[in-house]
Amino acid sequence: xxxETGNQANPDPNRPARDRWGTSxxxxxxxxxxLAAFIEDNPGLPIPDGAYMNYSVIEDTDEQERAEVxxxxxxxxxxxxxxxxxxxYVTTAFFGPVLYRAVAISEEEMERHNASNQIDVIRSEDWxx
Length: 129
Known about the structure:
alpha+beta
């Protein structure tokens, strides 16, 4: 469904359409502030015991990805290292019960993961009649 300008119509007026809020840093920060204010203003709203933000590092090479995770770790004042049996390179910081994590997954691990999750597509003409 689209509106008169051709943008995706939004049935919920309290939630802006995706192309109107985008994914810029400013929009994410504004959304986090808005959520925090809403939670504070609505004490009856159930919330989890914590929250997390996960940032997936995507660069051209595994070395560049690990370097970016190391850079983020330095900004956070923490260390980075292998996790999940060495398959991921991760840094994590806690802000009270809120976690921020940056993770790089090696190209080899992504290829293995993608290969193990491929699904054979069955076409309707292949089905018995």
